[in-house]
Amino acid sequence: MSKKELTEPKTEAGTKGLGKAAKLPEDVMYLGPTITGVVRHSTVFKGGVLPQKALECISRFPVMERLFVPLKDMPSAMKALNRKKGVMWEIYTQTAQKFIQEEK
Fold first, then answer.
1. Cβ contacts of 81 within 8 Å, gap of 6 or more
2. Is the pTM of this model over 0.85?
3. Which of 8, 22, 54, 103 lies 20 to 30 Å from 68 when distance is taken between CA atoms?
4. Would you list the domain boundaries of the chain?
C-alpha cells in the first residue's frame, strides 16, 4: 500500500474537495474511531453535512475523509473494517493513532 493511496481522498464517493462547503451529496456514516468531542463511530450525517470539528480533523488528516461512507456503501465498508486488513482498516488505525493518542 503506497503513501499516495492512503493520503488521497476517495473520489468515487463524491467526497473530494469538501472544503468550506462541508456538504456531501448524500447521507453518510462515519466508520472511523470515536474521537471525543468531535465525532462518534456509526454517526449518520444527513445530506453529508459534517460538523466543523470533523472538518478540522479532515483538514489535519485528509485521508480521514474516506471514513465518511455513503449509506449505500456502508455494508461493504463494514465488512472491510471487520476483516481488520486493507485500506479502510489502515485508515481507521492511522486515524485512531493520530487523534486518540493526541487526547491523552
1. 31, 88, 89, 92
2. no
3. 103
4. 3-103
